[in-house]
Amino acid sequence: MAPQGTPNSPFNFIQVAIAALGAGYLNVIIFFIGGSAGATMQIGETSHDVVHFAQVLGYTWASIVVLGFVVFLLGRAKKGVTKVAQWIGLVIAVASIAFPIMNSADVATAITLCIIHVMTGVAWFFAVHYGNKKLHTEAQAVAVA
């Protein structure tokens, strides 16, 4: 149990929502820039699977918000989870770059989707950052007094 005055949250959940919104919109901008650069957003040489901007936006939001909420809840029980989750999420996002590289129909699509994956990973890293320092400093001052 946390001492009185000590916040029981590893970070403010609003930072997860802000990171998700920001990353989603940046990823849509990257998507349209890639399309302007000639990316077909087609996955596979003969496949009719095409990545749409709604998918980019939805998957970015869903992954950051849902998993951010899970980390938020786990972090309330054990603060060290947030640091581990930060790095695991970033590593997964960077490792998942292999899929667009191997399955994209053209180079422009591969580059665009790789940048989107990296942007999502960076947003994740900062979304679950143990960044409620001001709140924790005030709580420590209250606990000492």
- Report how far the terminal alpha carbons are from each other: 19 Å
Question: Mean pLDDT, rounded to whole units?
Answer: 85
**H/E element string?**
HEEHHHHH
- Poorly predicted runs are none
Strand content is under 5%
List the helices and strands and how they pair.
Elements: H1 14-36, E1 42-43, E2 49-50, H2 53-77, H3 81-95, H4 98-103, H5 107-127, H6 133-144
Antiparallel strand pairs: 1-2
Helix pairs in contact: 1-2, 1-5, 2-5, 3-5
Describe the structure.
- With 145 residues, this protein is mainly alpha-helical.
- Helix content is 70%, strand content 3%.
- It is built from six helices and two strands; from the N terminus they run αββααααα.
- It has helices spanning 14-36, 53-77, 81-95, 98-103, 107-127, 133-144; strands at 42-43, 49-50.
- The protein has a two-stranded antiparallel sheet with strand order 1-2.
- A hairpin with a 5-residue loop joins strand 1 and strand 2.
- Helix 1 (14-36) runs antiparallel to helix 2, helix 2 (53-77) runs parallel beside helix 5 and helix 3 runs antiparallel to helix 5 (107-127).
- The longest helix has 25 residues, at 53-77.
- The model has no long low-confidence stretch (mean pLDDT 85).
